[in-house]
Amino acid sequence: MIKAIRFVFPYWVRYKGRMTLIVSLGVMAAAAHIVMPLVMRHLIDGLKAGFTYALIMRDAAIIMAAGVSLALVNLFAIRNRAWMNLRLEWEIRQMVFEHLVRLDRGFYHRYPTGDLVTRLVDDVQEKLSWFACSGVFRAVQSGVTFMAALAAMLWLKPGLALWAVSPLPFLLVFHVKVRRLISERFAEVQKAISAIFSFLEACFSGIRVVKANRKEASQDQAFAVKAVAQRDAEVAAARVHAAFGAFFHNGGLLGVVLVFLAGGLQVMEGRITIGDLVAFQFFASMLVWPVFDMGNFVVAGRRAGVCVGRIEEILDATTTVVEPCPPAALPPGPLSLEFSGVSYRAVAEGPSLLKDVSFAARPGMRVAVVGKLGSGKSLLMALIPRLVDVSAGRVLAGDSDIRELGLAEWRSRIGFVPQEPVIFSGTLRENVALGREGLCDGDVKAAFAAAQMASEIASFPKGIDTVVGPRGLTLSGGQKARVAVARAIVTRPPILLLDDCTSAMDADTEDRLWEALATSLPGSLQVFITHRPKTVASADLILTLDNGVVVQTGTHQELMRAGGLYKEIYQRVQLEMELRGTIGGP
Fold first, then answer.
1. By C-alpha distance, which of 316, 255, 264, 321 is closest to 102?
2. Residue 65: which H helix or E strand, with range?
3. Alpha carbon of 322 to those of 327, 339, 429, 585: distances in Å?
């Protein structure tokens, strides 16, 4: 609970005016609660003493005014608490999201998407934001009510007050004993919820594969296992919560019973009045719900503490791709690219996945990267936009080390199409523009034309405003690839990176695409990975990778004459395509 309070304290300071109002309303509500039993005591004892009608009506009016005031205070408090809950939820989620999108891709390899969604949605909304405002407000109101009721009882009859609070030490001992168990149970619940979210995200995103392989039944079984695990975790947590709440509630009621017994005897002995006993009964009852509320607050605090730990795990994650301060300026126009002794390790003590890679490419060149599976081709591409950073050596853009350039400026000069094109929910226009300012319809349509998708766009009911559905489910694999290409080239970047994105296109479409890129992006440096022999052979420079090492460089003719790995790969791929009848000869 202390961890949760420490986490949300800066937000309380930021909204100190609103939080002060909420706490003040809690104090006012507690005061209204305390006034009514005291006036009722006065009224009951006054009836026996022969109160006049006017005095009775005065006390009744005071009780009514206190009740109305309490209702208005509670209404105003609920509105302010709701506003504050939602505001804190928005701010915390926004802060975590902004941090997430700035982390490098290594972080996302460690955390499943569903787990991150759970932390952003369930942890923040259901657990932390409620505790940060409503939970604290109710605890303050309960604490003030408890202390005021206890003070009133001590003022009336100290001896009888001790009977009312006698169960409290036992409640405190019980809390100390079970608080760790509560945290453990709710931590298991959050892990189970994360597992469910991760499974659903993977299943729905791969639903085509599931249906194509007739794996619906196995997915049902796998989901049932995870659902049962979540159910068991929820039940275990609910049992602890129920036991905790019941013990606190019944402990508070025990105080009321003791007040009735001891107070009733004192009334019979004439030591206190009936008005005193009635007031004590109200005050003792006021100790019950604050004690119960405080118990719930402790449970909510333990749950919030678990969620804070999960959120801080994200916030403590750092990126290896560091923004330079101050960044170096990048000259406008075409750019050259040079790798100088570049090596890369995923972890400091791990093996080098790229080793001493060196090559230079001028503006306007087409550079092909070939190699066997797992040779480091995609990793080499990822180094250029700084999705990951080199472990040794330098990557130069012009004369500047790219680590000295501002990330936003450097990446704005690059068009990148990953191996698996990513399509966002929304329209085709939104997928290509991607929130970049200054792009008109003409730019978007020109990009689609260069990506060989103009005729298909024309056939869509709403053209570039056609909605493609979640992850582009309404598009074919080739269409997704071409939308991704259009997104990469719409700003006419001086460097274009294509990571085997043409594999879903037929040979004729790919040929037209390369011709269009040469026309629409004159002077751009293009680095690409492909398995099409004709495309590779047309490159100005070919890099052949083997286990992270560039073993051969040169043109197609030079490498074929030299023999070695490139010739072996080229001839094998060419033979495979001939057997499939889909080759486009060199």
1. 321
2. helix 53-100
3. 11, 19, 32, 45
Q: Identify whether 208 is part of a domain.
A: yes
pLDDT score, position 49:
60
Q: How confident is the model over 85-139, as pLDDT tens digits?
A: 888 888 888 999 999 888 887 788 788 777 888 888 877 876 787 777 777 777 7
Residues 401 and 530 in one domain: yes
Angle at 494 between CA 383 and CA 416, to 5 degrees: 45
Q: Cα–Cα distances in Å, from 232 out to 227, 237, 241, 274, 306? A: 9, 9, 14, 51, 18
CATH number at residue 296: 1.20.1560.10
- Give, as one character, the DSSP assignment of residue 570: H
Q: Do the Cβ atoms of 567 and 552 come closer than 8 Å?
A: no
452 and 563 inside one domain: no
Give me the percent of the chain exceeding a pLDDT of 70. Answer: 94
Q: Of the candidates 481, 505, 521, which is a domain's last residue? A: 481
Considering 39-48, 65-74, 541-550, the range whose residues carry the highest mean pLDDT is 541-550
- Does some domain include residue 194? yes
241 shares its domain with 342: no
C-beta atoms surrounding 92 within 10 Å? 23
503, 394: one domain: yes
pTM: 0.70
Question: What is the tally of structural domains in the chain?
Answer: 3
Distances (CA, A) of 216 to 195, 211, 213, 230: 19, 7, 8, 21
C-alpha span between 365 and 352 (Å, rounded)? 28
Residues 363 and 458 in one domain: no
Provide the residue range defining the domain that includes 158: 2-315
Six-digit token pair at 509? Answer: 């479409």
Query: Do residues 458 and 506 share a domain?
Result: no
C-alpha to C-alpha distance for 574 and 586, rounded to whole angstroms? 10
Classify residue 432 by burial, with Cβ atoms within 10 Å: 0-12, 13-18, 19+. Answer: buried
The partner residues of 543 in beta bridges, in order of sequence, read 369, 553
CA–CA separation, 453 and 481 (whole Å): 10
Distance, C-alpha 43 to centroid of its chain: 58
> At 192, which amino acid appears?
A
Residue 209 covered by a domain: yes
CATH code for position 521: 3.40.50.300
| The token pair that represents 374 in the structure block | 């797992």
Contact 486, 447 (CB under 8 A): yes
